[in-house]
Amino acid sequence: MLKLHKLKIIKQELVAPGYQRLTLAGGIAALAGQFVQVRVSETCDPFLRRPISVHHCTEDRLVLLYRTVGRGTALLAAKKAGETLDLLGPLGSSFPLTDRPSAVVVAGGIGAAPLYCLLQALKQAGKQVSFFYGARNQAELLLRDEYRALVANYSEATDDGSAGTRAVVTQLATPAFASLDATVYACGPSPMLREVARLADYYGRSCFVSLEAQLACGVGACLGCVVPVKGQEQYRRVCVDGPVFAAGEVFFC
Ligand SMILES: Cc1cc2nc3c(=O)[nH]c(=O)nc-3n(C[C@H](O)[C@H](O)[C@H](O)COP(=O)(O)OP(=O)(O)OC[C@H]3O[C@@H](n4cnc5c(N)ncnc54)[C@H](O)[C@@H]3O)c2cc1C
Ligand code: FES
Known about the structure:
By secondary structure, the chain is of the alpha/beta class. The chain has helices at residues 71-77, 112-124, 144-148, 169-179, 190-203, and strands at 3-16, 19-25, 35-39, 50-53, 56-57, 61-67, 84-91, 102-108, 128-135, 153-158, 165-166, 182-187, 207-210, 226-228, 235-237, 244-246. The protein is built from five helices and 16 strands.
């Protein structure tokens, strides 16, 4: 249930240059793919909360994994253990589990953040999971051992070849789309999601993608986050109708 939470920061870790993992005391009963709206300042500047996916949650812990890209995330990164963080959530749709025995999960960059929760749910459901993790370079493949521990098959791709295969991650994942009776899940940059959706459609796999957009209210009121979709409705809100959508529904520009 959507709720305002004030949770104490237990740990703020730099997991790679520009990437932080924040552990908070208190659970928020989120599903894989959902997010929270974080108030990054005690004042009204910046005015808007920042959306961050739930990376991992238990009854008494909430973990966020984020990249510092601008003022809001820099303010978040400056927060210390012992301080209290104001969060609204859980928000948005989640990744559905299906009756397929296998899953192909494709992550691009910080898109891996919400997929950790999904990998845990798939493992718990007894699915055979192949995880394809792509990033610009080795340093940006975050928490590799933790992701690897959750899946049967783990593969990496980097743009510069500093870890795994020098390729785009969709190239690496293509044989799995063809050979496995799997549901496909993905989160990452738009060009990656567009290619994942194309491959899933070509091989006849169900596919769910988590989209990013710049959010304002985060609760469906302002229409600031709409994306074009196929069919009659034409536009849907990323914050409440998504961020997870069936790939066949999304109109990738
Ligand atoms: C549903 C959802 C879940 C998200 N989960 C995570 C997560 O788990 N970890 C994480 O690191 N980030 C996540 N993001 C992105 C994160 O919200 C933005 O990076 C953050 O709001 C940027 O705030 P800022 O003030 O630091 O940057 P700003 O100063 O607002 O912007 C800095 C730069 O980042 C770009 N930017 C800002 N917001 C977004 C966005 N939503 N998508 C793409 N580019 C953006 C701006 O155009 C600008 O170039 C998520 C976004 C959404 C919509
Ligand atoms: S951010 Fe306001 S409707 Fe989605």
